[in-house]
Design brief:
This protein has four helices and five strands, in the order αββααββαβ. By secondary structure, the chain is an alpha+beta fold. The strands form two sheets. It has a three-stranded antiparallel β-sheet. It has a two-stranded antiparallel sheet with strand order 3-4. A hairpin with a 2-residue loop joins strand 1 and strand 2.
């Protein structure tokens, strides 16, 4: 008799616990982090109209609190495209060091592009997490 009671009660307990576990999982996925990491981009270093180097850049966008990170992560390719286009139109070249990009100009460009793509006041700040030069380049004398 006890075995029958357990065989009926156990599935009911599991069904009752499933929605609570799903709610906890959904809450945890929203708390992943208020940021969007852009995939690494190859940005050109151009000197006197000639391609001198490429710098591979990784960037993190820190979002405002309450921003829907999943929604903005889905739009990441559009922002990456805007950055690469801007870098080819007016390169973020540091004349004294052809192995780095001008972080201030890149940040300003990303803030402008993110305001257009994500909307105003969604991106709080921009952090360049890494810069890797594709080759050793020397400034022209």
């Amino acid at each position: 008799m006890l075995r029958r009671l357990l065989s009926f009660a156990l599935p009911l307990l599991l069904l009752a616990a499933a929605p609570a576990a799903a709610e906890e999982g959904a809450a945890a996925s929203k708390q992943v982090g208020q940021y969007v990491d852009l995939q690494p981009m190859a940005l050109p270093i151009i000197v006197d109209g000639q391609l001198a180097n490429y710098v591979f850049v990784s960037v993190r966008l820190n979002l405002a609190s309450g921003a829907d990170t999943n929604r903005w992560r889905a739009k990441e390719p559009f922002l990456r495209d805007a950055v690469v286009r801007a870098a080819h139109a007016t390169p973020f070249t540091v004349p004294s060091d052809l192995q780095k990009i001008d972080v201030a100009r890149l940040t300003a460009s990303l803030m402008r592009s993110s305001a257009v793509i994500f909307g105003p006041n969604v991106v709080r700040s921009v952090t360049v997490t890494s810069q890797v030069s594709s080759r050793r380049a020397r400034p022209k004398a």
